[in-house]
């Protein structure tokens, strides 16, 4: 079971502002993706390679936000990496590994229409609230849909992605059981780091975990 990074979320309190900020930094304007009904969020996407992409995520003002993940994004002052999503073709095995590690999770069906009029669908595993926060990543199976890395706005390439955590040794054991293939190092504080090659030059995006 080898589950690499599928995408990471770069969160902002406002989608248009987040898209503009990323364009200033990278020279690439992420394309609008869609909305997530019931979750209070909407997104824009930028390809980082054929099987990986960046998801700019923000609250959706057209939805009721109270009690949704979108509500938690309203207080963000500067865009930051706030979540990881790994690729997996066997979500049930990942779910069992999480359960063995004491983390409950749910597997949900998802889908949306793209701006081009196509319908893409997926299955996603979402850990329930736990002490690891974003260091217990989500996992996604794109089923028969074309991966967004192939269809999102091109121009950037992911050169490196890694996470840091004060308890990296213990966390690494959980990640191994999940088949997670993301670099993890010991750090003073929980953090994420992504190095991109962009039309504007090298770009480093960061984020702090819970």
Summarize the structure.
This protein is of the alpha/beta class. The chain has helices spanning about 15-25, 70-75, 90-100, 150, 170-175; strands at about 5-10, 30-35, 40-45, 55-60, 80-85, 105-115, 120-125, 140, 155-165, 180, 185, 190-200, 200-210. Strands 1, 2, 3, 4, 5, 6, 7, 8 and 10 form a nine-stranded mixed β-sheet that branches. A four-stranded mixed β-sheet has the order 11-9-12-13.
Measured by DSSP, the beta-strand proportion falls in 35-45%
Query: Which second-level CATH architecture applies?
Result: Roll
Could you say which structural class the secondary elements and strand pairing correspond to? Answer: alpha/beta
How far from one another are the termini? 27 Å
Taken together, the total number of domains comes to 1
Helical element count? 5
- Give, in order, the helices and strands: EHEEEHEHEEEHEHEEEE
Which fold does the CATH topology refer to?
2,3-Dihydroxybiphenyl 1,2-Dioxygenase, domain 1
How many DSSP-defined strands?
13
CATH class: Alpha Beta
- Taken from the alpha-carbon principal axes, the silhouette is globular
Residue windows where pLDDT falls under 50 for at least 5 positions: none
Main beta-sheet strand count, sense and barrel state: 9 strands, mixed
Tell me the name of the CATH homologous superfamily.
2,3-Dihydroxybiphenyl 1,2-Dioxygenase, domain 1
Q: Average pLDDT, to the nearest integer? A: 94
| Radius of gyration from CA coordinates | 16 Å
Query: Fraction of residues in helices?
Result: 10-25%
């Amino acid at each position: 079971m080898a589950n690499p990074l599928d995408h990471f979320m770069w969160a902002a309190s406002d989608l248009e502002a987040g898209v503009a900020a990323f364009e200033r930094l990278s020279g690439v304007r992420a394309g609008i993706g869609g909305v997530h009904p019931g979750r209070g969020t909407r997104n824009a996407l930028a390809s980082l390679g054929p099987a990986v992409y960046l998801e700019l995520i923000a609250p959706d003002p057209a939805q009721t936000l109270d009690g949704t993940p979108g509500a938690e994004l309203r207080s963000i002052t500067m865009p930051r990496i706030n979540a990881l999503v790994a690729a997996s073709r066997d979500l049930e095995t990942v779910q069992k590994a999480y359960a063995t590690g004491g983390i409950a999770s749910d597997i949900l069906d998802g889908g949306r229409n793209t701006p081009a009029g196509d319908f893409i669908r997926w299955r996603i595993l979402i850990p329930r609230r736990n002490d690891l926060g974003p260091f217990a990543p989500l996992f996604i199976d794109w089923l028969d849909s074309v991966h967004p890395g192939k269809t999102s706005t091109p121009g950037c390439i992911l050169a490196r992605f890694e996470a840091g955590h004060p308890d990296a040794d213990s966390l690494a054991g959980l990640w191994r059981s999940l088949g997670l293939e993301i670099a993890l190092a010991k750090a003073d504080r929980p953090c994420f780091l992504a190095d991109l090659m962009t039309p504007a030059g090298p770009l480093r995006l960061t984020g702090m975990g819970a």
